[in-house]
Amino acid sequence: MTPNPAGAVEIPDLPLTEFLLGGLDDDTAARIALIDGASGRTTTYGELARAVERLAGALAQRGVRPGDVVALHCPNTPSFAIAFFGALRAGAIVSPVNTLYTAGEIENQLRDARAALLITVGPLLAASGPAAEAAGLGSGSVIVLDGAEGHPDLAGLLALGADAPDVAIDPGDVAVLPYSSGTTGLPKGVRLSHRNLVANAVQSIEALDMREDDVVPAVLPFFHIYGLTVLLDVALRSRATLVTLPRFELPAYLQLIQQHRGTYLFIAPPVALALARHPLVDDYDLSSVRAVLSGAAPIGAAQLQEVADRLDARVRQGYGMTEASPVTHVGPPDRDDVSLGSIGMPVPGTEARIVSLETGEELAVPAQGMSEPGELHVRGPQVMLGYLDRDEETRATIDEDGWLRTGDIATIDHHGATFLVDRLKELIKYKGYQVAPAELESLLLGHPGIVDAAVVPALDDEGQEIPKAFVVLAPGSGLDERSVIDWVAERIAPHKKVRAVSFIDAVPKSASGKILRRQLRESGGAA
Q1: What is the rounded distance in angstroms from the CA atom of residue 264 to the CA atom of residue 333?
Q2: Bridge partners, 247 (sequence order)
């Protein structure tokens, strides 16, 4: 068992919104919770709490009942926070939707989640509008936060002044339904309870060392569980200030840090590499930054050290997955003997073990050096209730003793620090986003000029993981690499695009028909 020095945690028996925004004293209510990075408009904790209550009342007036699913399709703005917590306060389940999704992908999520309402914004209505209509939601069931003809908007709903409904929310009830590909396969709803999210916020606050005087640039998308928990939940519970940025652009991000004196950066590896190496960084004053945490995908110690040296800040990385709300491991803030290349130690209240790939037995923490590789398992109060309507896949992911099989291969050193080695699962991590090969393969096979296809991870020139397709062409198809890439790009979210293509005579498969991806990776792992 991996050591967990901080031990257990006490989890308040409260719904998430009440845990974060309930019972504010006068001083806290007057603190700035959110700054709209685009306009500079500020929202205090008291204003946020009042808006959440009024929106909950307005949603209840529109027929939203406890247990209804509200899909939230919105970039990082203060309005996202109001909509998210307002829907939860009304007793609804929120299903965040990737802002890069196409209409077809949004429709699939709306149908699978059985969404009763969609909350979106005008710039995304071109995709979300047709998706909602196709999923059977009328215009009155589509709220456009910033306004659009024929749809309710946030200002109008808040102006109703409706009282929040008197609803009984059990902390064990489902609160959030993000979509994850899990260890394999197509996206599926992850049932996270209020207790899961409250627990992970408590666990993460202890591990992350966030303070009420921190200013946190919120560039990680709130629709992603990393941004949802670490930014919205942890930062707000810590009474820090979030500065929202709707999309990542390096100059805007650097300007945001400089202008608002950002102190704590939560990023993914591509941003870490930019902070370490991009010449533009030297044009901005980033001296206010005291801490950086990288997550969503692994990054090497050398690259993180570059960030630490350039920003003169404490840098660490963490680990998690949607099925664990998501945080399970974080590099300790006060241990110089723990490698920056590790994902750190389990957060308080979390058990972890590494299981031999050959024997299935738990591997011991070595007295010196590093253990042999095994699959990382975790257990704790943040582990999901299960997948929506997928009991068999839930049982394959969480065993009868509550251990979550992460699908990641890891080792542990004599300090108790965990290091990721590889993945058992077939998922590709592109810039922190999950890309399911099966989804891309299904799409490729829909092209009349393609008779078979397989997608595997490959490395681009910067060493980042990308989706690479191996394609078997139909006779006379005339397709080349660019035409395949462009065809896929027109039909899927940008982060899922195929970014390299090789043409082969046949996709290698086992006797049972399973694609032998390792052969493809070994034969063409470079892009």
Answers
A1: 13
A2: none
Query: Which tokens is 120 given?
Result: 């979106």
Can you tell me which residue has the tokens 């989890």? 11
Amino acid code (one letter) for 366: P
Longest dimension (CA), the chain: 73
Please give the pLDDT value at position 183: 55
CA 11 vs CA 14, 174, 248, 332, 345: distances in Å: 9, 16, 34, 21, 20
DSSP string, 169-230: --TTSEEE--EE-TTSSS-EEEEEEHHHHHHHHHHHHHHHT--TT-EEEE-S-TTSHHIIII
Hey, what are 364's tokens? 């011991």
**Rounded distance between C-alpha atoms, residue 447 and residue 134, angstroms:** 23
Write phi, then psi, for 330 (nearest 5 degrees): -145, 140
Closest CA to 147 of 107, 171, 120, 169: 120
- 241, HSE (Cβ side, Cα atoms, 13 Å): 22
Tokens found for residue 408 = 């990641």
Q: How far apart are CA 242 and CA 11, in angstroms?
A: 24
> Which residues is 180 bridged to in the sheet?
188
Distance (Å, whole) CA 398 – CA 383: 9
Positive or negative: CA dihedral 468, 474, 478, 484: negative
Which residue, 171, 201, 133, is CA-closest to 15?
Answer: 171
Candidate ranges 52-66, 335-349, 366-380, 435-449; pick with highest mean pLDDT: 52-66
Gap between the Cα atoms of 496 and 101, Å rounded: 10
**pLDDT more than 90, % of the chain:** 78
Q: How far is 429 from 344, CA to CA, in rounded Å? A: 20
| Distance, CA of 94 to chain centre | 14
Give me the domains of the chain, ranges plus CATH numbers: 38-169 (3.40.50.980), 435-524 (3.30.300.30)
- Helix (H), strand (E), coil (C) string for 261-293: CCCEEEECHHHHHHHHHCHHHHHCCCCCCCEEE
Q: How confident is the model at residue 185 (pLDDT cuts 50, 70, 90)?
A: low
Cβ(493)–Cβ(105) below 8 Å: yes
Alpha carbons within 13 angstroms on the beta-carbon side of residue 189 total: 26
What is the per-residue pLDDT for 101? 92
Number of neighbouring beta carbons within 10 Å of residue 379: 21
Q: What average pLDDT score do residues 24-38 get?
A: 97
Model pLDDT for residues 143-181, shown as the tens digit of each residue: 999 999 999 999 999 999 999 999 999 999 999 999 987
Contact 354, 411 (CB under 8 A): yes
Which long-range contacts does 153-162 make (Cβ < 8 Å, 24+ apart)? 154/55, 154/79, 154/82, 154/83, 157/54, 157/55, 157/58, 157/59, 158/51, 158/54, 158/55, 158/58, 160/54, 160/57, 160/58, 160/61, 161/54, 161/57, 162/54, 162/57, 162/58, 162/60, 162/61
- Enumerate residues 6+ apart whose C-beta is below 8 A from 141: 116, 117, 118, 132
